[in-house]
Amino acid sequence: MVNARQEGRLTEPAEGIVSFVVTNYNGSRNLKRCLPYVLEAAAASGVCDDVLVVDDCSSDDSLELLRERFPQVRVLALDTRSSFLGACNAGFRAAKNPLVALLSNDMAPEPDFVTKLLKHLKNPDVFAVQATLVSPEGRVESERNIGRFLFGNFKMLNTAKANRGLTRMLLPQDRDSSYSLYSGACGLFDRAKFLELGGLDAIYLPFYWEDADLCFRAWRRGWKTLSEPGCFVYHFHEELGTIRNNFDKGFVRTVERRNRFLFLWSNIDNPAHLFEHLLYLLVNLIFSLFVGRFSFYRSFGQALMRLPQVLRKRRERGNDCWSDDQIFATVLGQRRRGAGAEKPVVIARAA
């Protein structure tokens, strides 16, 4: 039987509710492999009449490929390089429908992607719901993310790694919560709420921690970000990842640490937490000097250069319903009665 993946058809739904937004930078190879799966999921949903690829000034043949092989897809070609962050914001502004399914160009959703996420957005308090990322071999990469403030720093713990190393020690195994710290591009969003928040913050350019910051700002409004463990998206990150294939590893590490600082300085209010973070910085600045880890100084110095933007961001914050203490308590969840934690789902199949 010929399906939408094979022909690339996008059927006209009875009602347009969801727009797919796919971000792309020099991802011709990614689009060839993954975009047919996006079109299949859009057609299978019955509520998607809009698939938009936002091209971030690609220098490969991405635009030519889209024009020749995927004429049913809308293309927004940006005039200036904007990174994933800028491409997302442009895509949400250009989307036609009230809900946006956001994907990177190296992600292939299963056909029921929209159907399984859409049920959560019927609740007006929900801002976003994310799917479970799996490798092409079926290994769970990312499930529900839990944010914890520990030892003066912010840790993002993933339930897919509940039995591994430090995460096994730090992940609260005795608690239940449906909240998730949205990370990466594989979810369904309320477009109006995204735009009301101002989208992803350009302070985090070019990448990393902008999604966690978006969650925190949504939580301060009292909105929920959830995860759907039964919804799967195959991720060709190792083979096709944009950051991995276009940026030096040292640069990526520096940016990730810098943006972690910016996230903390933008969102943590509790005086005890701020004092702990100050101690963390002092200890690491001294330690890094002795061991010659000058990358820590680069990250810290770059974050200090953006401190005026952080302070302005804090002054302009408004409409807050929750404090950071309330956020941590809610996201961690209530203590579970009875036996141990659920184990993450493992999918023994390939895309």
Structural account:
The chain has helices at 4-7, 28-45, 62-69, 83-94, 113-118, 165-170, 191-196, 210-220, 237-240, 242-246, 249-267, 271-291, 294-305, 307-315, 324-332, and strands at residues 18-24, 48-55, 74-77, 99-104, 107-109, 126-134, 140-142, 145-150, 153-158, 175-176, 186-190, 224-235, 334-335. The chain is an alpha/beta fold. α8 (210-220) runs parallel beside α11. The chain is globular, with a radius of gyration of 20 Å.
The helix-and-strand class reads alpha/beta
Shape: globular
Biggest sheet, in brief?
A: 9 strands, mixed
CATH topology of the largest domain: Spore Coat Polysaccharide Biosynthesis Protein SpsA, Chain A
Fraction in helix: 40-55%
Mean pLDDT across all amino acids: 83
CATH homologous superfamily title of the largest domain: Spore Coat Polysaccharide Biosynthesis Protein SpsA, Chain A
Total domain modules:
2
**Computed Rg:** 20 Å
End-to-end distance, in Å?
Answer: 18 Å
Find the count of extended strands (DSSP E, 2+ residues). 13
CATH architecture of the largest domain: Alpha-Beta Complex
Number of helices: 15
Order of helices and strands: HEHEHEHEEHEEEEHEEHHEHHHHHHHE
Low-pLDDT windows of residues: 1-7, 334-351
CATH class descriptor of the largest domain: Alpha Beta
Q: Strand portion, in percent?
A: 15-25%
